[in-house]
Amino acid sequence: MKDFYAQLVDGYDQNLNKDGVNGERLAKRFASLAEIGVSEQRFWRPGYSADEKKAKELVKEWMREAGFHVREDGAGNVIGRLEGKNAEAKAIASGSHVDSVPNGGHFDGPLGVLAALEVAEAWRETGYQPEKPYELLIFSDEEGSRFNSGLSGSMAMTGEADLDEFTALTDFNGTSFEQVLTEYGSSLEGYRKAKRDITEELELFVELHIEQGKKLEQEQQPVGIVSGIAGPAWLEVVFTGEAGHAGNTPMRGRKDPLVAAAAFIQRVAELPATISDTAVATVGKLDVSPNGTNVIPQEVKLIVDLRDIHEEPRDQLLEAVRQEANRISKSSGVAAKLSQKTKIKPIPVEEKWQSQLSESLRKFNITPIRIPSGAGHDAMILGRHIAVAMLFARSRDGISHNPREWTSLNDCVTAAHILKDFIEQQQSATAG
């Protein structure tokens, strides 16, 4: 803890300790969480693990000290609530997650949780009472590193989780989702009952996260505004040709699926720019069979990951990729089989919230920069049901999901101030 804490406070600007927000307190809490899930080999807090639960229990203790009424639902989501002057009003909510990817970093997730907690700590120190209820949410298993299927907590809270799909999941040890829940202290029935009527209970959810990119660093700004959260569409493409001996099969007349796949992948990289300036496409997984040095492949299977923060251009890109696969199949004589694997609705952030976040940034002399989020977040799941807003804090070298992940304490505290200011704007605003 001491080494990580010392790194955080080294060079910290004490002038940022104001309006009840305290950088040293935030740093100590980052350092305490960073100790949970550490082994000699790596750092890892999988969803629904003893370490994720331990991290939640620690934050729950801090939440109670800050005045929250705290409960945990059957999906393991932690829900802290501060009552407002108007107890009947819908709540303003903020938070994130405390699980991690294998060998990940200490800011992805915890920044959003601890900054949301720091807002309440600042209110307690300054005697501010919110008009509307305020909730701090810690979602379970956001990263999905245990079951290769993340956002489990937010999907349970919104009622989006398909129990048939979840019961079919097994973790890295072959343990079923149901057994993992039992070991965690819940059950499938408890997971099902985690659903809330959030449209009636929550007015807005705002999430603070590290950027996972270099835009803010390039623009020399500590905090930016998320313009939308990209929805991924995954398309599996299987090219099937004719296997043969690499030395005895003439080049002319070959039906090589890897050559076809290579031409296809090149086009996948070129297509997004023809459709949208926020669209991206990636082929990150390729399976070649039989995968021999001196064998022309029989089959190549790949998955195309397509994303945009707007649904229409994302779907246009998806169709363009389909057409390109079929065109290359026809011209090469190699068969192509296409299968849709995932298609998640993107969530643009309403201009209203982006404008109000801009106001908060300008109060701290920060130039508003709007950035699309290519990664998924719990805000994406909640955003299908209620209004959401999102902030990014600068990440050194744009690194995330890596032990070198780093956001300076100055930037973390600045982001907490902006989150606090924005939430206070909503506290004084009339709903609707």
TrEMBL record:
It comes from the Bacteria. Zn(2+) 2 binds at D108, E143, H401. The keyword Translocase does not apply. Keywords: Hydrolase, Manganese, Metal-binding, Zinc. Binds 2 Zn(2+) ions per subunit. InterPro entries: Amidase_Cbmase, Bact_exopeptidase_dim_dom, Peptidase_M20, Peptidase_M20_dimer. One of its GO terms (molecular function) is metal ion binding. Residues 230-329 form the Peptidase M20 dimerisation domain. The keyword Protease does not apply. Transmembrane segments: none annotated. Zn(2+) 1 binds at H97, D108, H209. Its cofactor is Zn(2+); Mn(2+). It holds the Pfam family Peptidase_M20. Belongs to the peptidase M20 family. Homodimer. This is Allantoate amidohydrolase.
